[in-house]
Amino acid sequence: MFDQIKELLVEELSINEDDITLESELVNDLGINSLELADLVLQCEDKFDIEISDEMINSFVTVGDVVDALTDLVGNDR
Questions:
Q1: What is the pTM of this model?
Q2: Residue 51 belongs to a domain with what CATH number?
Q3: Is 25 helix (H, G, I), strand (E, B) or coil?
């Protein structure tokens, strides 16, 4: 899941691959703004055929938070 999220961040938001770790903070480390976060959420929803709640989005601080949440939603089989 981490690799898939990392790929989205690199391809869709042009973030340097070397800057992305599970501990990277979306805003403070990667410089993602609210519009880019919304775009990332839409990309994830489309890619994994899921719906991400506003509550879940508000809990996204690090890349690891996104990975954990999507792993819970998608399951370990993907």
A1: 0.90
A2: 1.10.1200.10
A3: strand
